[in-house]
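Sequence in, structure out.
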Amino acid sequence: MFLHQNEINNYLMPVDTFFVSSIFEKDQYKKLGYTANKLKVSGWPYQHKGSNKKSIKGFLLIFTGSELINPLSKYSLKKIIYIIDIILNSKKINKVDIKFHPNEDKKILTKTKKIFGKKVRILENIELNKIINDYEFIISDSHTQALLQIINLKKKLIIFDYNNKNLKKYIDNEIFFKTTKKLNNILGNEIDYKTVFTKINKKILNIKPEQSKKNIINYIRKENFNSFKSYKQILDINLWYLLIIGEYIKLFKDSDLDKEFDNFKVKINNFKYYENFLNKTDTRVTKNIVIYFRIKYLIKYSIKIKIRDINIINSADFNYFKFYIISDIFKLIFKLLFTINTKKSKKLCYKFLQLYSGISLNYKFKILIFLIKVLLKFKK
């Protein structure tokens, strides 16, 4: 909500409790009609310490996902090229390392390399968390989640000004730029970052990540003993946690559930293991997460999709997180179109297209939908 100017840019599932990062976030959800007692201020948990290397002399540029992978993104290829051009025209920057979103479209990377050549180094196949401490200066767009991590790490941050009113309200305008001239001024000044980040640290990031994780886990443990009705509720929590941040919560040491979840995303390739989790989640929303991880496996390892998988996928309802998984959905559609030709596979493709019917998607996804409809029309 904070980085996206009080708008929800993703799905929200039907749950009993929402963990939010600050009082600011809680107030915004209340304005949208959410009940106050359902909103728990835990802090912002998405954080890693990074490496312990000494900062190198250099600049790291970070971009959030472009409109080619995120239908709600403000960043087109043209805008990305424009920002890089401003930076490289600076007197003090003749080369910059760039970290795009991990799922960024390869066209963005290829075009950037072609235009700027050796002036840019695109960092691929490496996690941002492992390199973020290595740079003296970090330049960021106005919407990436990495902004909060950079501030927590007390790094020298410079932000491209894309009219993010929340950021400008809580961060001193001294580090925002829209032109090469303003960027030169920032680099030429000795900035007191402690002062620049005073307001955001006090109002938005006052609960630090490690404490936030403890707050969430402690609350869940407490609620488990007081009000959890069954093993299924703990299972649901773990599956959602696994989907959102890529890990699950070890609620009880050496429990059977923890053993089952260990290496979940790899073990899902075993169909019996997969069916076991489907049976445990029954007809609940979380069943769709299990199906989604199976889809990820089928796509990643180019596994031929069998009728048994199509039957199960057809029973899924991805409405709650259709934007979160949009790229994988379209990869699956093309996989179905070119590897299997049955009425059931066509029906599934149409079902997926219906998910995004009537929604204002960006140009890339509009083209994809048009192509898919043409292919479906000529498929027997």
